[in-house]
Amino acid sequence: MLNNRSHPRSRPQLFHLLSFGLMLLVGSAPWTPALAQTADHAAVFNNNCSMCHQLGAAGVPGEFPRLAGRAGKIAATDAGRNYLERVVLFGMLGKVTVDGTPIVGGVMPPFASLSDQDLADALDYIVSLDDSGKLQWRGRVFKPADLARARADKTLSPAQVHELRAAVTADSRP
Fold first, then answer.
1. How is the chain split into domains, by residue range?
2. pTM for the full predicted model
3. Cα–Cα distances in Å, from 97 out to 30, 31, 47, 171?
């Protein structure tokens, strides 16, 4: 008669062997400091922004604007970076049309409770996304010091931030 039960002492050995194999597999992945940094940036966005803007910043047409491919174009100018810093700090209220579709409600809450580092990371992530939501890491565009300066500057109402958007998007049409 065959005994189908493994010997109790072999279970820890099997566990150690599987653990060692998993460590080898994970350790062989091409994990670089830049890759780790972009993962941190994505985590900030995913934990705070993706509920509305969705993973990959794809948005929901008519409800939440697509950021992928748009934020990078806005951030190409000083005025655009200024607007993006203030929209995450102070929120925005007003009619918005994205990709020819009006956004119902046009409200974005402020995220001033996040650290300057977290806000800079989230912004760096979205400006590095192409139109399809694929990450094309551009390096650091926003520094925590930029957010600290914007935070220390005049506080804007969400409606005033909307006015900044109108000036920036009229030129870049994202």
1. 33-172
2. 0.76
3. 40, 39, 25, 14
Tokens of 31: 């994990």
Residue for token pair 């491919």: 69
State residue 103 phi and psi, 5-degree precision. -95, 120
Instruction: Give the Cα separation of 104 and 96 in Å (integer).
Output: 8
List the chain pLDDT tens, one digit each, 174 residues.
Answer: 555 555 555 555 554 444 444 343 333 334 333 434 456 779 999 999 999 999 999 999 999 999 999 999 999 999 999 999 999 999 999 999 999 999 988 899 999 999 999 999 999 999 999 999 999 987 899 999 999 999 999 999 999 999 999 889 864 444
Q: CATH number of the domain at 33-172, please?
A: 1.10.760.10
Strand partners, 144: none
Instruction: State how far the alpha carbon of 80 is from the alpha carbons of 9, 63, 70, 72, in Å.
Output: 64, 22, 11, 9
Please, are residues 86 and 94 in contact by the beta-carbon 8 Å criterion? no
Whole-angstrom Cα distance, residue 141 to residue 94? 27
Closest Cα to residue 131, out of 44, 61, 73? 73
Strand 92-93 with 107-108, pairing = antiparallel
